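Service request form, structural biology core

Requester: graduate student, group of Dr. S.
Request type: structure prediction, single chain
Budget code: on file
Notes: please return the result as structure tokens.

Sequence provided:
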Amino acid sequence: KGFEQRSDAVVFLDGDMSAEKFADPAGMETAFANTRKGLQNYADKLKVRYVMIGRVGLNGSSGNHGERRKPRETHLINSAIDLLKLKLGLTRIALAGQSGGSTISASLLSFGRKDVACAALGSGAYELVELQQKIMAAAGQKVTKAALYKAIYDPASHVGDIAVDTKRRVFVIGD
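Core staff response, request fulfilled:
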């Protein structure tokens, strides 16, 4: 709520949720309510418009969250932002992501978006093919990188597609 007259907004994408949390719908709803409350506090304090997008299978969004990190999720979020920009009259956005939401935000930058004024990427995974291959190898599974590049949208492999914008600020935060 508030600041609807602004033509810019922070678009927030939350992180992944573990399978254990899906077993507790009341806990999921509480977490979602707390996130919304926190974003409203930031909006009021900073006098900026916030938009939260529920990633596939999270925060009221339909779909299977187990299908995350795939090209489809990235394309869906990209389209959702385009539609929200039209509906809300936005011209510029700032991307704010946490964990898996940060990975999606980095992926959105690699789509060549020219409407992103700033991006804050917190604790994301950006070399997903390398990560997935290591996880699968540890489990005794063999898979080629070529197969993984088809199955996963890996933002690190698309860095060259990020639109050049000397005014854009990108913050990568991790530990």
